[in-house]
Design goal:
Elements (H helix, E strand, L loop, with lengths): L1 H10 L1 H21 L12 E7 L5 H16 L5 E9 L2 E8 L5 H15 L8 E4 L8 E9 L6 H16 L5 E8 L3 E7 L1 H6 L4 H10 L2 E10 L2 E9 L4 H5 L2 E4 L5 E3 L4 E7 L15 E7 L5 H15 L7 E8 L1 H36 L1
Antiparallel strand pairs: 1-3, 1-4, 2-3, 5-13, 5-14, 6-13, 7-12, 8-9, 10-11
Helix pairs in contact: 3-4
Amino acid sequence: MIESIIRWSVGNRFFVLLLTLILIGVGGYALKNTPVDAIPDLSDVQVIIKTTYPGQAPQVVQDQVTYPLTTAMLSVPGAVTVRGYSFFGDSYVYVIFDEDTDLYWARSRVLEYLSQVSGSLPDNAKPQLGPDATGVGWVYLYALMDKTGKHDLSELRSLQDWFFKYELQTVPGVSEVTALGGMVKQYQVKVDPDKLRAFDMPLAHIQQAIKRGNQEIGASVIEMAEAEYMVRASGYLKNRQDIESIPLGYNQNGTPLLLKDLAEITIGPQMRRGIAELNGEGEVVGGIVVMRFGENAQQTINGVKEKLTQLKKSLPDGVEIVTVYDRSGLIESAVNNLWMKLLEEFAVVALVCMAFLSSLACVL
């Protein structure tokens, strides 16, 4: 058998060389495009359903949101385990599938069953799927800080939420960019209960008035001088003065009653559950870059770095980007260590072969 293979190879040198070149090309392509990471991904195939139910206690969230979702997800094809967790204002449901299940097939099945049960949830409970990532998808972390003091934490958080997040999500391989720390800017309406009682006005009326006062209403068109003009009412709230001028009705004297007459409108931060601090130098705003499932971690991190380099030109004066966690260094060290070990193994095999051949030559 071996003699026949050697005889055929000698007689068909061209095909042997062609096959060798093809194998080298395929091997080089696979070596270049194989996803590289320093941490093996051993996590389960899971889909996370997060539901926000503002202002509700954990027991209410459990009864009205978590329980209906978990019971509906038990019948999802391929699901082996369904876990539900209820917190203040939030519900998390983890659907774990078989190891051989494709992640995106699992997400489509969960979304299909979620559409069936969403009608039975409360009106202000908004379920959504988590990112298409795994437990080792956290590949890059950066911080926004301003040592000059020109920009406060709310401005840095707004910069992260409305600028960096959308720009970095365009990088191939990035699934999600999550904000950490800072303060979310809010317009806060502090209603005076004594004034509500004096004007005999329920709190729900103020809520409806604010909702109606922040709308764009479109009508039809009118034709004037052979031209059509679109008719619409522009009612979006743009600043604090617009909120203060929202009408609530009339008092006993027929004077218009505005929101500022019953409440104090201020600008403040949203209630925080935690902070982000960098090296003991004070609070900062962080951004966590999560990689999509099955992507090349090294290429994704390089793309994020290139994007951040481009975004630095658009930063306000005083704001700087500080890298906090970068897995690319660990990946490069692991790959270099692997190459060194392979070279050492090649050298050992070559020395063994030379020693064996020299011993055989001596015997002969």
